[in-house]
Write a structure and sequence with these properties.
- The two termini are 36 Å apart.
- This protein has a domain of 178 residues: NADP-dependent oxidoreductase domain (TIM Barrel), CATH 3.20.20.
- The strands form three sheets. Strands 3-4-5-8-9-10-11-12 form an eight-stranded parallel beta barrel, surrounded by four helices. The protein has a two-stranded antiparallel sheet with strand order 1-2. It has a two-stranded antiparallel ribbon with strand order 6-7.
- It is α/β, with parallel strands linked by helices and 324 residues long.
- Helix 2 packs across helix 3 and helix 8 runs antiparallel to helix 11.
- The protein is built from eleven helices and twelve strands.
Length: 324
């Protein structure tokens, strides 16, 4: 698989990453199962065999159990660690934790960031994390606290590089003013059906069209060597379920995806990912399927280059209107 550098200073990884959120689907205190362990092993082996090297986690996924499953797999096969770039996220806190009655919230305090990293490293069973992302913007963020946490984690060799998730250009600029380490990645939702960050570049100054809160996010990332990672790049499977076809936009776009896929003997999912990969900003899809065969099929996107006409045909179909 072809590769991307993550930022100007970060590691080089596969163009497609694997998202580990659903390694466990039980967001409760139920014990891990043997089926979950077997499927985790199969998914990681499939990813590695197809050239995927970036594995994306978060401390909240299945309340830590997805990281625990991955860590158990690494403890059984420790040599695999050297073939991986491990990335995780922190900053989201569940309601009722640690005190009953506390609300769901975001927390970029020094204490929470450093404690979260310790938990991540323990669950994964590793000594260092290659990349740490701040998960969702915290309105109460004090950048100086974040900077202190980043400095301590970096100096201790616990985190190699840092980035963000779901942040706008202004939020990244504010944070970067205070932290020493360059922000090397921003993981945001982007797909053929959720293309607002791409669409805003052509609807600015159109009546009712400017997505003001996200304006300039992709361009900011390109200007500052911040790798854009796409979560939910397959639009949550909406093009794959017939129930979604009641929407004429989804129905027509699904038909076009199938036509382009059949012409290349690949799956429609591979075409969806190729649409993202065609963007010159170097968008890195994070695929989270729990089906090894589907994951393997998605990797075919790495060998597909859509024409400008094909890209725009999909874009206009999914947005339900021609470009202005």
């Amino acid at each position: 698989m072809k590769t991307y550098p993550i930022g100007a200073t970060g590691p080089t990884t596969s163009r497609i990453g694997y998202g580990c959120m659903h390694l466990s689907r039980a967001w409760d205190n139920a014990p891990l199962t043997d089926d979950e362990r077997r499927n985790t092993q199969a998914l990681v082996e499939t990813a590695l065999s197809h050239g995927i090297t970036l594995f994306d986690h978060a401390d909240i996924y299945a309340r830590g159990k997805s990281e625990q499953l991955f860590g158990d797999m690494l403890r059984q096969s420790p040599a695999l660690r050297d073939r991986m770039v491990l990335q995780s996220k922190c900053g989201i806190r569940f309601a009722g934790h640690p005190q009953p009655g506390s609300p769901g919230r975001y927390d970029f305090s020094h204490a929470h960031i450093t404690a979260s990293v310790e938990g991540i490293l323990s669950r994964l069973g590793v000594e260092h994390l290659d990349i740490l992302l701040l998960h969702r913007p915290d309105p109460l963020m004090e950048p100086e606290e974040v900077a202190r946490a980043f400095d301590e984690l970096h100096a201790a060799g616990k985190v190699g590089h840092f980035g963000v998730s779901n942040h706008t250009a202004g939020q990244m600029a504010l944070l970067q003013r205070h932290v020493r380490q360059p922000l090397i990645a921003n993981q945001v939702e982007i797909s053929l059906l959720h293309a607002h960050l791409i669409n805003e570049g052509i609807v600015a100054n159109q009546a009712g069209g400017l997505y003001a809160s996200a304006a300039g996010t992709l361009d900011y990332c390109r200007l500052h060597d911040i790798r854009v990672q796409a979560w939910a790049p397959l639009a949550g499977g909406k093009f794959a379920t017939t129930s979604g076809f009641a929407d004429p936009v989804i129905r027509d776009t699904a038909a076009l995806l199938r036509e382009l896929a059949d012409a290349r003997a690949v799956t429609p999912e591979a075409i969806q990912l190729a649409w993202l990969l065609r963007h010159p900003g170097g968008i890195q899809p994070i695929v989270g399927t729990t089906d090894p065969a589907r994951l393997a099929a998605c990797c075919a996107a790495d060998d597909i280059t859509l024409s400008r006409e094909e890209w725009y045909a999909l874009f206009t179909s999914a947005r339900g209107a021609r470009v202005p």
